[in-house]
Amino acid sequence: MLHTGVDDDDDGCFRERRGSSRRRRRRNKAPSNQPAFSISMQRFHLGLPHSSSSMDTSTLTLTSPISTTTTPFHDLPEASPRPFKKNLVTTLMEVATPSFKEDTYLVSHLKSSEKKALQELKDKLLASSSSSSEAHNNHAFSMWGIPLLNGDDQADVLLLKFLRARDFRVNDALNMLLKCLVWRQEFGADNVVDQDLGFKELEGVVAYTHGYDREGHPVCYNAYGVFKDKDMYERVFGDEHKLNKFLRWRVQVLERGIRLLHFKPGGVNSLIQVTDLKDMPKRELRVASNHILSLFQDNYPEMVARKIFINVPWYFSMLYSIFSPFLTQRTKSKFVISKEGNAAETLYKFIRPEDIPVRYGGLSRPSDLRNGSPKPASEFTLKGGEKVNIQIEGIESGATITWDIVVGGWELEYSAEFVPIAQGSYIIAVEKTRKIEASEEAIHNSFTSKEAGKMILSVDNSASRKKKVAAYRYVVRKCNTPSEVQLSPK
């Protein structure tokens, strides 16, 4: 479904951001009149031996003021997959299908035995506080600014996290909670967020929170490939003092993400973790990985709703055997494991493309986060042997169109051209047809039209048998007017 949004435009009109050479060819036939700002997507199967030669055209149309007509896409036969032999990574991917069900933290949803355990934990925690030398220090029995002895909904959310982590065994949950309170006080966890720990070069690279998933969970990304560089590894993990400093920074990143949580029944009370295993040095980081996993599992129970591993290498089975003993079965039930090259396809299932960093096949750049909520994108699937033309129609003379487009794993041909309406005008090759490599990020470009017409974005997957996920978005601004017309899905 599409919608329009009208926003103020301080710049009037965009300038073209990429000065590519443009090939012109004469348009001999004028197309029929089209309504302003309509989207037409054409799909063509292009003759792989296993695919149909039929053509499917699907059209989404948007007119002004707001009128939406939708013709559904018709599924085309997919390429027959080649038989393959299962390896250990494939087996682990099947075994580790996530079975975790996130708690609502609504007391009314608890079983009678769970309600009884919650009350018992409250009573025992109150008794522990009364016997403590810091009985009058309410701060000693609080986490993230939430007093645990108040008996309100927020306190219940935190207590239920510890009970869930220990399968509602009250004494075990109490011991875990008391140890966590001691650790937070000794570590200074409440104050670590505002400290300058000197890891500027790692921020936004190794561990960082970026955007939200489709259900509103903050997403924390982890990527340790930079440590394949021995000098970098020595600077960060060279001795015990450096390792402890890194662990403190890693806790700082997590604490920043936790500050985005609601801690309310029915709210967003956990994070999503995405761990990129590409180029991760498997032996050198064993000690650091064990420390991080142990620290987080002991002191941050039920803070992660899902753990997504992407770019999983062939030796993942060895890595899995290293950290598996440190994980509970409940933690393992949250795992999603994606082999190398399938990052975008996996992440799109959980996160919208406008919230996924461009390095992982999304449309989000760091600068986007400084401009408020990201502009929504349209998603589509590009099948093997298929070419898709996205036609953005109804562009007026003098208007500027700015677009972003990405295909997960690219390895296909892309082009963009502007087709004027007027008979006898020249078609302009805004971006000549070129091969886009798998490692390339989303394309961002703009074009100012000198006459009315339409923009056609083409992605050609005819040389591949693999189905790929894709997304695009665009904004059309009329020159010398303060208004902006945006077409994108809700």
Helix content: 10-25%
Q: Count the helices. How many?
A: 10
Task: Assign an overall shape.
Answer: elongated
**So what's the oligomer here?**
single chain
Going across the biggest sheet, name each strand in turn. 2-17-16-19-14-3-4-5
Percent of sequence in beta strands: 25-35%
Distance between the termini: 6 Å
Number of E-type strands: 21
Q: How does the major sheet shape up? A: 8 strands, antiparallel
Estimate the mean pLDDT confidence: 80
Radius of gyration: 27 Å
Residue runs with pLDDT of under 50 for 5 or more positions: 1-21, 30-35, 49-97, 482-490
Give the structural class: alpha+beta
Family: Belongs to the patellin family.
Biased composition (Basic residues): 20-29
Keywords: Cell cycle, Cell division, Cytoplasm, Lipid-binding, Membrane, Transport
Pfam family, one: CRAL_TRIO
Structure explained in plain terms:
- This protein has 490 residues and is α+β, with helices and mostly antiparallel strands.
- The protein has helices at residues 88-95, 112-131, 153-165, 170-187, 230-237, 240-258, 286-299, 316-323, 329-332, 343-347; strands at 2-8, 23-26, 38-45, 55-63, 67-70, 142-143, 146-147, 207-212, 218-223, 271-276, 304-312, 335-339, 378-382, 386-395, 400-407, 412-420, 426-436, 443-448, 453-460, 468-477, 483-489.
- A hairpin with a 2-residue loop joins β6 (142-143) and β7 (146-147).
- Residues 1-21, 30-35, 49-97 and 482-490 have low confidence and may be disordered.
